[in-house]
From TrEMBL:
The chain crosses the membrane at residues 7-27, 64-84, 96-125, 161-184. Keywords: Membrane, Transmembrane, Transmembrane helix. This is Membrane protein. InterPro entries: CCB3/YggT (IPR003425). It comes from the Bacteria. GO terms for cellular component: membrane.
Length: 186
């Protein structure tokens, strides 16, 4: 029972932190204003690890320091999960590195799902919400290509549903690969 609770807590904390790091990198790619309350909160929550890494990896269009921080967080998460499973992590180092990369991919896919769901719900419940421009800017690079393919049915945008299905299939593939490599879930 303790092991299940520890795995749940580790998964929750590291997934939220990894998503924040990836959101920080994505905020820079889509050029979101830094004075936005959401981007400001993400920056404050992740500065402690990203700013020291910026000295090694200076920023460009892509925030490589945030991506490296996400990889470091994923490596720590995977290592802790292996230790909780009762396995010596030093015996599995190359495989752990690959699983850490898959974990970052999984965090990114989960972030896409949650941002899309939040945007879709707000568009129905409160389209004038101050969060809508932010969510639209974050999700537009994923939804706009799908909007060009899918016709609008009576004013209903089906692109979030299609994106959700595509990302969910990708999550299944990533999870299956990671589980087959480690014999436990990430």
């Amino acid at each position: 029972m303790f092991g299940d609770i520890a795995r749940f807590l580790l998964s929750t904390v590291f997934t939220l932190f990894g998503a924040a790091l990836l959101l920080r990198a994505w905020i820079q790619v889509v050029r979101m204003p830094p004075y936005n309350p959401v981007s400001n909160a993400v920056m404050q929550a992740t500065n402690w690890i990203v700013l020291p890494l910026r000295k090694i990896l200076p920023g460009a269009k892509i925030d490589w320091a945030s991506i490296l921080a996400a990889l470091i967080a994923a490596a720590a998460y995977v290592t802790l999960m292996v230790v909780l499973a009762g396995v010596d992590p030093t015996l599995m180092l190359p495989m752990l590195a690959l699983v850490a990369v898959l974990t970052v991919v999984k965090w990114a896919l989960n972030l896409i799902i949650w941002m899309t769901i939040l945007m879709a719900l707000l568009s129905w419940l409160n389209p004038q919400s101050p969060a809508m421009p932010l969510l639209y800017q974050i999700t537009a690079p994923f939804l706009d290509p799908l909007r060009r393919i899918l016709p609008r049915l009576g004013g209903i945008d089906l692109s979030p549903i299609l994106l959700f299905v595509i990302v969910q299939v990708l999550l299944m593939v990533v999870t299956r690969v990671a589980v087959s490599m480690t014999l436990f879930g990430i």
